[in-house]
Design brief:
The chain contains 15 helices and no strands. By secondary structure, the chain is mainly alpha-helical.
Length: about 425
């Protein structure tokens, strides 16, 4: 390492702060269904997820190389550009966490990086082919593919299981759900922790501390893994509630199908170097599992709000990143202004969140009124045949018993005959 300037140290610390927000923002991806179905206690679930996130960070560096070598031109990128990108990503993560929306931390990071790079060096600094093939196309395809796989897996599990709902069956699916949740956590560490590794590596290259084309150093891998693991252990309870209870109602076998499908998709994308959003994958899997069970519902109003957040993530983070980069170009005092703004905005969001605390004690609590399932799934549920034996009971309950008849008045005595 040739040098390590103050701005470079600020960038590394900010990148690890983003990694921390990524951890608690995306805890729901691995553990929401496991917690909502009661397969694991909330605190135990997030502790297991944090540990496996750390392990997953050491399995690959392909996604990190996509970020550090492929998305933007590393030549001419200043460390301040990376700092501005991280500001945009962190603020988007915190805003969506505050309202409980599962959005993509990955796309927030890439949006901030794109916006800051364009503000600094123009549109030529962004590699459009990499953006389309390894970011945008996977973002569109991932929830669809994972959702279809989860739907088919759910129907298959109900098909081979028939109506078996005994204690042994439920325990078996819960054990499978715990195992699949661990696999999602491992995949999340493999995919998402690498994005921070890539950003730190890009900053080290921009600051002259690493040669262009270098892989992430060991200390970068370790620190990124620890940061995302700590954030995961803190638990993004607001988003866990939305993913576990607000999107659909899952049984253990549905949760198992959803998490297995999601883990497979994430691990495959990590191997290919696709910077995939675990949020998109898991959300698609959860919706597919909800539709895979007869009578299952998806709350499309919640799903539509999530979709809007997904569409806005890249441009919103890019705009904030570009604005922050414009201020940092004013010099050291500009960078200091952006840093103060980031800290103040983060503290304000946290203070607002304290007005309604969501933690492990009430994460599974839902509004008594609930949320309407939406026109599509309500119609599906309406035409689904009821289970055998319920029709007679329903008719008995709905058809009122005949009212008791009043005794007839005594007949008048016959008239006397003359």
């Amino acid at each position: 390492m040739e040098s390590f300037s103050l701005i470079l140290a600020i960038v590394v610390v900010t990148a690890l702060a983003f990694d921390f927000t990524n951890g608690f923002h995306d805890t729901a991806n691995a553990m929401a269904t496991t917690i909502s179905t009661g397969a694991m206690k909330p605190k135990i679930a997030v502790a297991m997820s944090a540990t496996l996130n750390l392990v997953g960070a050491f399995l690959s560096v392909e996604v990190a190389n996509t970020i550090s070598k492929g998305l933007v031109d590393e030549n001419g990128i200043r460390p301040e550009v990376i700092f501005a990108a991280l500001v945009g990503a962190i603020l988007w993560n915190l805003m969506t966490w505050l309202v409980g929306l599962p959005s993509s931390s990955s796309h927030a990071l890439m949006g901030g990086l794109i916006g800051a790079a364009v503000a600094s060096a123009g549109f030529g600094a962004v590699h459009g082919d990499v953006l389309v093939t390894k970011v945008i196309l996977p973002a569109v395809a991932a929830p669809l593919v994972a959702g279809l796989a989860s739907l088919l897996a759910t129907r298959f599990s109900y098909g081979i299981g028939g109506k078996a709902e005994g204690v042994a069956t439920r325990k078996g699916y819960r054990a499978g759900q715990i195992a699949s949740a661990g696999l999602v956590s491992l995949a999340h560490g493999t995919n998402d922790a690498q994005k921070t590794m890539g950003v730190i590596t890009l900053a080290l290259i921009a600051g002259g501390s690493l040669a262009p084309g270098s892989n992430p150093p060991t200390w970068v891998i370790l620190s990124a893994g620890l940061a995302i693991a700590l954030g995961t252990y803190i638990g993004g309870w607001r988003i866990i509630r939305t993913m576990g209870k607000g999107l659909t109602d899952l049984e253990p076998r549905q949760g198992f199908a959803a998490q297995t499908s999601a883990a497979t998709a994430i691990l495959a994308s990590s191997h290919l170097g696709f910077s995939l959003s675990t949020t998109h994958v898991v959300s698609g899997s959860v919706m597919g599992a909800g539709l895979g069970r007869k009578g299952g519902v998806v709350r499309w109003s919640t799903a539509s709000r999530m979709a809007v957040a997904w569409v806005l993530t890249l441009p919103a983070a890019a705009l904030v990143g570009a604005g922050a980069e414009s201020v940092t170009e004013l010099g050291d005092w500009g960078t200091a202004v952006v840093a103060v703004f980031l800290v103040a905005a983060s503290a304000t969001i946290w203070k607002i969140s304290r007005r309604e605390v969501v933690d492990h004690t009430n994460v599974n609590a839902v509004d008594e009124a609930g949320e309407p399932a939406g026109v599509v799934t309500a119609a599906i549920a309406a035409v689904t045949p009821p289970p055998a034996g319920t029709l007679t009971a329903d008719l008995t309950a709905t058809i009122p018993a005949p009212a008791a008849t009043e005794p007839a008045a005594p007949a008048a005595p016959p008239a006397a005959t003359v």
